[in-house]
Amino acid sequence: MNPLVPMIASTVVAATPLIYAALGETVVERSGVLNLGIEGMMLIGAVAGFAATRGSGSDTVGFLAAAAAGIALSLVFGFLTLNLQTNQVATGLALTLFGIGLSAFVGHDLAGLPVDRLAPLKIPVLSSIPVLGDLLFHYDIMVYLSIALFLGVQWFLTRSRPGLTLRAIGESPAVAHAIGKSVLKTRYLAVMFGGATAGIAGAYLSLVQTPMWVEGMSAGKGWIALALVVFGTWKPARVVVGAYLFGGVTQFQLFAQGFGLPIPTEFLSMLPYAATVVVLVIICRDPKTILLNQPASLGHSFHSAA
Amino acid sequence: MQLNKTLKSLPLCIAAGLMATLPVASFAAEPLKVAFVYLGPRGDGGWTQQHDMGRLGLEKEMGDKIKTTFVENVPETADSERVFRQLASDGYTLIFATSFGYMEPLQKVAKLFPKVKFEHVNGFKTAPNISVYEPRFEEGFYLIGVLAGQMTKSNTLGFIGSFPIPSVIRNIDSMTLGAQSVNPKATTKAIWVNTWYDPGKERQAADTLIAQGADNVAQNTDSPASIQAAQEKGTYAFSIDADMAKFGPKAQLSGTTEDWSGYYIAETKKVLDGSWTGNRHTRWGIKEGMVVMAPLNSAIPPAAVKVFEEKKAAIVSGSLNPFAGPIKDNTGKELVAAGKTLDDATFNSLSTYVAGIDGSVPK
C-alpha cells in the first residue's frame, strides 16, 4: 500500500476534532465574544459522550449528550459574560479550569473502561475504489459531517441574514442594537453553538480517536483550536485548511520517525506550535488582513443603555 | 449508569470520612503507618493501579499490624515535596514514592525527616533513609520479543517509546534481542512520542507503525491506545503495566505487568523487625515475581508458547541474561563481547540501539 494513504487518513482523523471546535469558536468570535473555555467544554463533551455511549450503546446518543453537555457549560459562560458582564478572558480561562476538574470528577469511575469505536462508513462502490476509496470514502460519519458543518457555517456567515446580523453585532454591537437587533440573544445562540461543537469535538476524541475516557485527554487541542481561529483570520475556509495542516504536521513527525529520518523528535513535536507562531507573525506583519476580519468588538462586553 | 454510581457512592465516602475521624481504640502496639504517593489516579488502568493493588496486597498480608494511606494525582513538581512533608509530619514512618520524578523532592524531604524511611521507584539517588527499587522490565520485554519474533509475518516489530532514557532504551533493545533469538530476520521500528501518557498521540504512533509494516507493536507508554489500534487493523500488540486485553482481546498477545505486593510486604516486614536500611538498590524481575507476564493469547500456537516458556524458565533459573554477548549495536560496533554480559555502568546509561533497530536513538 502507498505509505501516503494511511498518513493522509490519520491526518483527517487528527484534524476532525479541531475543525469542530475551531468552526464553533469562529462563529462565537464573529459575534464579538471570546470564549477561551474550549478545552474545558471539550473535556466535558468527551466524558459526557463516553458515558452516554457506554450507557446506551448508541454513538448518536453519545454525540448528542456531548453537544448538550457542551451547551450546558457554555451557558454558564454566557450567563457570566453576557448577563453579568464579567471579563471574557478571565471567565473563559475559569471555564477551562472548571471543565478539566469537573470532567475528571464525573469521569472517575469511567477511566480504564472500553467502548466500541464508531465504525467507518462503508459506502457501496465508492469505498472499494483503490487508493481513492481509501483516501476519501473510508471515514466515520463525523468526518463527513465536519465538512457539512464547514459548508453550513460558511453559508451562514456570508449568505444568510442572521449570519450577517451576527457579524454586524461582532463589529459594532451598539449600532446593531440601535437598529433593533438583539445583541444578547444572538450572542447567546453563538456561544451555545460554540459549546455544542466543542462538546462534539471532545466526544470525537473519546469515541473515535481513542475510544476511552482519560482525564485531560484533550491534551491542549482546545488551545490549538483557538489558535486556529486566529490562524484562519476568522474565515471558516482558512480555519479548515489550518486544521488539516496541523493534523498533517503531527502525523508527519511520527511517519518521519518510522522511516528513520534523523530529525530530533523534540523538534518534530514542537513543529505544530512553531508553525502557529510563524503564521501569527506572518499575519501580523500585514495589519490589514488581520484587521479586516477581526471582529471589532471581540472580547468587549456590551451593555445596552436601554 | 456510571454517573449514578459516582453519585451513589458520595454518601458512602462522606460516611467513611466521618468514621475515619472517630477515635480508634488504641492497641497494645501502635500499627506501623505506611503511605503511598501516586502519580496518577488509582483507576488509571496501568501504572498507578498496579501500585495500589500492591498496597492492598500489603494490607491483606499484614492485617492490623499496619495502617496504610495513599495520596493520588501527585504531580512530579514542588507539590510532591509538600505531600511528602505532610505525610512525614503526620507520623507515616514508611513512605513509598511511586514515580521517577519524585527523586529530587524526596532528597530534600528525606534530609528533614531522618527517622522516616523512604522507598523510591526507578530512581538512582539513594540516601541513609532512601532505598530504591526497580523492576527488571528488560526481562519482560525480552519475552515480548520472543513472542513477537515468532508471530510476525512481516519480520517487522514496532515500539512506541516514551522518552529515550536508558531504562526505556533497555526495553526496546531487549525486545529486539528476544525477537532475534527466535527469528534472526526480525527488525524493529521505533517511534518516540515524548510523553508517558497521551492516548491520542500513542494511537497515531501505533497507526503509523502498523502502516509501515510493523505487525507486532509493543509500547513503553501507558495507555491502551495501541492495543485498540492493533485490534482494528488485525495486528498484534503488547500491554504494559496492567493487562489491557479488554481493549483488544484479539490483538493483545501478552505484555508486562508488575506485582509490587511482594516487595512492599518484604520492606514493611524489615521496618517492623528493625532490619530496614537505606542506600539500597533492589532490582527484581520475573524470578522474584515483580515482573509478571500478562496472560498469553490463545492465538499463539503451542510451539511458540513452548519456546516462550523455555526462555522464561531460563530467565528464572538465571541461565539466560537478555544482555548476554555477543551483541553489536546498530552501527556494527561491538556492545557486549561473546561470553560476557552487559556491565552495570553501560546498563545504567544505555543509549544505543542494538543491531536490528532502524534509525538512531534521538539525541
Provide an overview of this structure.
The complex is a heterodimer of chains A (about 300) and B (about 375). Chain A is mainly alpha-helical. Chain A has one domain (about 5-295): Orthogonal Bundle (ABC transporter involved in vitamin B12 uptake, BtuC). In chain A, about 70% of the residues lie in helices and about 0% in strands. Chain A contains 13 helices and no strands. Chain A has helices spanning about 5-30, 40-55, 60-85, 90-105, 130-135, 140-160, 160-170, 175-180, 185-210, 220-230, 235-260, 265-285, 285-295. In chain A, helix 1 (about 5-30) crosses helix 10 and helix 11 runs antiparallel to helix 12. Chain A is globular. The relative contact order of chain A is 0.20. The model of chain A has no long low-confidence stretch (mean pLDDT about 90). By secondary structure, chain B is an alpha/beta fold. Chain B has two domains: about 30-135, Response regulator (Rossmann fold); about 135-260 and about 290-350, Response regulator (Rossmann fold). Helix content of chain B is about 40%, strand content about 20%. In chain B, the strands form three sheets. Chain B has a six-stranded parallel β-sheet, sandwiched between helices. In chain B, strands 7-6-8-9-10-12 form a six-stranded mixed β-sheet, with helices on both faces. Chain B has a two-stranded antiparallel ribbon with strand order 13-14. The interface of A and B includes residues 51, 113, 114, 212 and 262 of A.
